[in-house]
Amino acid sequence: MLERIWIKRRHRGPMDERPTATLVAEAGLVDSADQGGRRQVTLLALEAWDATARGLGVELDPILRRANLLISGIDLVHTRGRTLAMGECRLRIEGETRPCERMDEAQPGLQTALESDWRGGVFASVMDSGTLRVGDPVRWID
Asked: The CATH number of the domain where 71 resides is what?
């Protein structure tokens, strides 16, 4: 399920939470600073995030990861090339999102904790334009 949606206003800028978002095929999220880039959309699995926080012995809001979409019930480990259906859209997983030093600014040790098992999430390309809503089902279609 699509749990949360965030849009980044500018590079290194704040993440704005939204109940809906519009995706544009081959471009990404409308109003996102990263629209049109290689990482059109970034996704984070809630279960992987929670496991990471437990391993660090802290509670962490997933917004700290700076992903666009927080999903649950889907394992993102080693999924390059697979396709997700979400709301009106399809997203093709292009690769793993590697954690950067900003993670340690949010929580010491977070960057290293996110480096194994694709815990930092994935980036995807947008195959179909459409609207996403928090609560939309998410499923593999390949």
From this structure: 2.40.33.20
**Residues 99-119: tens digit of each pLDDT:** 888 898 889 999 999 998 999
With beta carbons less than 8 A apart as the criterion, state whether 128 and 88 touch: yes
Strands 15-18 and 69-71 turn out to be unpaired
Tell me if 79 sits within 8 A of 135, measured CB to CB. Answer: no
Q: Total structural domains in the chain? A: 1
Cβ(32)–Cβ(68) under 8 Å?
Answer: yes
Q: Could you give the 3-state DSSP secondary structure of residue 134?
A: coil
- The domain of 124 spans 2-140
The DSSP bridge partners found for residue 124 are 41, 93
The Cα 126–Cα 110 span in angstroms is 28
